[in-house]
Design brief:
alpha/beta, 8-stranded parallel barrel, 11 helices, 8 strands, binds SN-glycerol-3-phosphate
């Protein structure tokens, strides 16, 4: 499983990239609003993110029609070679995904909450499909088993040729809220987990790791003094 970071915060992206394991970034309008982003700065901000990461950067369109989505997507795609266009699943989103895929612009289909939505996204040629875990849990459903079903359903078919090049769509476990979500995403075979910075950092912590390290350092002091 690859790790993406789910944020628009440049400092968080820079820090996570320095760990050497970051394969991409996902953003959305809410994440950009959370850092106080302004409309006029958006293209430059996305450009800066693209320069920080050796991997794909998902930037979301906000248009309501397929034509608006395609227009926005073309502008975003011109910012950097590693841009992926994030498009909400739906009738207009599918049409936009199909058009963009044919034009060689990769799409991350987002706000996916069911197997049929994921299958339609794959059929439209989406390069990435993002089922949400936390938001499904929030309404009393089981976000992890939904992603597991989507991983299995997509795995049932050969999608080569549906999208750009000969690649299969990759499933991004999104709306991740905890270390357990990350662990479960890996166990069910999600291709990618897009993880908020705080959760990513928590993935490295374990009380037994801390206790063990403390003991090693203390014991090495004894070796130095022997
Ligand atoms: O990538 C989508 C993700 O950011 C949604 O997360 O926590 O707002 O449900 P959340």
């Amino acid at each position: 499983m690859k790790f993406f970071i789910d944020t628009a915060d440049l400092a968080e992206i820079e820090e996570a990239a320095s760990w050497g394991v970051l394969a991409g970034v996902t953003t959305n309008p809410s994440l950009y609003a959370r850092i106080g982003g302004k409309l006029a700065d958006f293209p430059e901000h996305i450009k800066r993110i693209c320069a920080l990461v050796n991997g794909s950067v998902s930037a979301e369109v906000v248009g309501q029609t397929a034509d608006e989505m395609v227009r926005e997507a073309q502008e975003l795609a011109s910012i950097a070679a590693n841009i992926v266009i994030k498009i909400p699943v739906g009738i207009e989103g599918l049409a936009a995904t199909s058009a963009l895929t044919k034009a060689g612009i990769p799409v991350n289909m987002t706000l996916v909450f069911s197997v049929p939505q994921a299958i339609l996204a794959a059929r439209a040629g989406a390069r990435y499909i993002s089922p949400f875990i936390g938001r499904f849990d929030d309404i009393g459903e089981d976000g992890i088993s939904q992603v597991a079903d989507i991983v299995n359903a997509i795995g049932n078919y050969d999608w080569r040729g549906a999208g750009i090049g000969m690649e299969e769509p990759e499933i991004i476990a999104a709306s991740i809220r905890s270390v357990n979500h990350v662990a479960q995403a890996a166990l069910i075979g999600a291709d990618i987990a897009t993880v908020p910075f705080a959760v990513l950092r928590s993935c490295l912590s374990h009380p037994l790791t801390d206790r063990g390290l403390e003991a090693f350092i203390k014991d090495w002091e004894k070796v130095l003094q022997a």
